[in-house]
UniProtKB/TrEMBL annotation:
UniProt xrefs under PANTHER family: HEPATOCELLULAR CARCINOMA-ASSOCIATED ANTIGEN, RIBOSOMAL LYSINE N-METHYLTRANSFERASE 5
Protein name: Uncharacterized protein
Superkingdom assignment: Eukaryota
InterPro entries: Methyltransf_16, SAM-dependent_MTases_sf
Pfam families tied to this protein: Methyltransf_16 (PF10294)
Amino acid sequence: MVPPGAQPVARSSCQSGVTTITGLPHLLHVSELEVHTGGAGMDIPLTPGEQPLKLTGNRVWDATLQLVEYLRDLGPHHVADCVIDLGAGTGVAGLACHSLGAAEVVLTDLPSQLPLLQANVEANRVSSGKVWAETLDWRCSAEAERLVAGQLKGAVLWVLAAEVLYPREQQLSLVDAFFDTLLAILTAWAKNTATVFLAYEERSASVTEAWRSRALQHGFLVQEVVSKDRVPLVFELRLPHKARLAAAQGLADRAQSVAIFEAHWELLQPFVEHGLRDVARAHVAGVLDVPSMLVSWHAQRVLQQYHDLSRVFGAIADLRDARLVTAAEGQIHNLQSQLLQLELPTDHRAAHAELGRTKLAMRQLQALLHDLPQGPLPGPALVATIRFKGLEVASLLPTLEEEPVFGADSQDHRTCSATAILDDADLEASLPETVAAVYAAILDEVASLSGTKEDGSKSWQLQAAEDLLALLDDCTPEAAREWLETWRAGPETGTPTPSVRRAALAAPLERQLKSG
């Protein structure tokens, strides 16, 4: 119910970077800073602890004001005892709850946002309640769980999330992280009276679909409470008691799985490249037999490296030295014989060690062949199977299919695919996930072009990447196919990345559209 005579919550003035918010029991005076321009996703630091390139948290967004007005209109008797403001930005939503009489309010955001938050807290201490700011990355659910368990007391909790979900490169993984944090908070809260308020201006149907799907998956009750021109702006989410119990059990199971992963990662880490920990952890997420799946993942990487190395096998005659040719042919024969039917030891540590020895043999062969040109995949010789505990965990099998070569007539080539036999159907990617993955691959390619003969195509590829990222606003197969046509054609001017390489970068999207 709207309080009698209540005015809309709005900005009334902005002087010297300080905005006044009216319509609350007390005026709020909050500092805003200029929002830096930049591409989608640049609001997230590339490296933890660094400054983001695009400071979207430095301004007051309209959806935040709509949320504040809705909370005010609930009436003073409905104000929560404790409030957590996730991704608080300027802190307006949480500070409004402080003005409305909440006993404890904590404003949280990334370290780069903390100075602005703390300044706004000091400028707006208007009641006897506690209000403070602290660092919390809502992509890390453990941080949120510690906050609830260690500091907050009361019977009623509000969790505010204003303008934290919007189109960006890793939006689906961010939606997952956001709900992981919500579940951690709600299951750590001792009482049942907890409500999540999600406010944002919809800029992408795919974002809304993603978070609604995740909410439904965990049993949240979702209600649209504020809309504008029939477009929802504010949502109220509640997690029933039974769903909270299920979520708590799920978090406990995940914690156990993480502990198992960490123990077995120690066995695997000496045999794989640095920086793959998060990749491996994502691969085994939700799997019951984590140790065996890590062996499968390791085996797949070995066969992928074998697949890549085999492209130079047909060029060993270019070594010119007969002794080198003989040595290379012998190493290739030994490698092919070993991988044709490799049975790993049943002990996990020994299995990883065996795969590590296989990779060492490939590295030695690669050192011998490092200057040779790549060619098409060899024919029937490129067959491999790796078994563990009587099961095929990875295989490399030749299949005849069309390999697209953009910018030229397509021809039939013999290609191979590394496949995991262990059931892990959840790893199938959606179209938005595939678009995001191809976008990331193009950016990696751009980063590798500096100083090469292909450096001239960087600006074109950056523009193509931005065009691809724009598809996430409304990701449809038709729009993806249109982007692919442009990508196939290449730039009109400048030195393009070779068409075969462009085909490889976009291959996941090509396969996604064909399978759809």
